[in-house]
Amino acid sequence: MSCEPVVPRSGEVGQDDAGIALRVQGVSVAYGNRLALDGVDLSVRRGERVALVGPSGAGKSTLLGLGSGTVVPTQGRLEVLGVDPWAVSPGALRRLRARIGSVHQQLHLVGPLPVVHNVNAGRLGTWGRLRALRSLVRPLQVDEARMALDRVGIGPYLHVRTDRLSGGEQQRVALARLLVQDPELVLADEPVASLDPARAEEVMSLLCGLLEQPAGHRRTLVVSLHDFDLAVRHCDRVVALRQGRVVLDVPVEEVDEGTRARIYDLAPDT
Ligand code: ADP
Predict the structure, then answer these.
(1) DSSP character at residue 126
(2) CATH number for the domain running over 47-64+89-264
């Protein structure tokens, strides 16, 4: 069992940019006097699937927030897709965010709108305001939206009001939105926390399937999960956090009963 990261920590930020999707070096995040992350080092390679596990309050969402460029590090160095989000212009930060997909427990769909608009919301990071408004009047890139819905198994619902769909179908709309966004890095914060085990398995399989790209390439995934077994089944690597620190970082092939026991022993932080 190893506490060392799979990717060596030694590289300076800026080195090996092409191969690293997310690099966090000595990063702390403080909310007032509460330290949410405490000197975290983590590198995620492009194409890798990394599960974040650990008790509630351990710092998983904060770490994902660093990756999405929404949480500012109090200390340390951060690089997302080769860019330090807090060292670039607002325009460059906007462009960076368009390359990052987020998946949440809350789907953030607009219920009264037809499905096509919610799928096209995946393009808002790259469309200008005028284009977005035009598409609300007459949907643009409808064929691509339909293809994305086909891929998640709900092709015929393109023009159906989103709030008429079941919860599971709405989840698929959110995944189709992710697909049209075509992000390089996907950050998922407890995406299956509210689902029963069968649905959770289905959604994780669907999500991981969408990360596959032609010619054996894969989009990078960092996902926080409560269910350790789900993490092992779907990810390449498990990173456990406790009290804002990385306490375990291990490839799934090396996960054994000892690792499992250690994860389940991580007491709540409160
Ligand atoms: P997890 O996702 O593992 O549950 P979080 O990253 O949400 O953990 O939280 C880590 C710690 O930071 C917790 O103690 C939490 O209360 C605190 N925290 C998170 N977000 C905020 C915030 N916006 N303001 C104040 N404290 C926060």
Answers:
(1) T
(2) 3.40.50.300
